[in-house]
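Q: My labmate handed me this sequence with no annotations at all. I'd like to see what the chain might look like in three dimensions before we decide whether it's worth expressing. Could you predict it?
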Amino acid sequence: MLPEHSGEEIKTIGDAMMVRCEDPRQGVELGLRISEQIGDQPDLPPLRIAVHTGTAVSRAGDWYGSAVNVAARLCSAAGGDEVLVSEATREAAPCLDHVEFGARQLHWLKNVPEPVAARLAARREGTAARRSLRELAKLSIRRSFSGVPLRHSEVTG
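A: Here is what I predict for the chain of 157 residues:
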């Protein structure tokens, strides 16, 4: 799913994964898609997904900065099988008509001096996600492709 959303796996830590998308809209879409297609798998723990937008610095293949910290802390604040989108991302990602955002809530996050506003995100009724993982798995049996291995519990971006 990462290449389809211009996503880049930055690192995994335990069962958490840090992902970066160039476009905030792609980050929200990727978070929703992961939640829809992996979140309901009975053999996996509930996913907690957060998307935040801000400035960060790249060094030696990793990303650093307050935006990265906020994304990680928001991920911890998300409930199981929730996609939590910061207000900064929502403002930076216009034209998400297929996404429904819940009420704005303030989150007091560890080591973040000011509360961070965020909303739960979900796909609006009647808008379908792209191909399911099962459909994609069937395709991969027929032809080989180079995929990105994912270990999921959290996605931040």
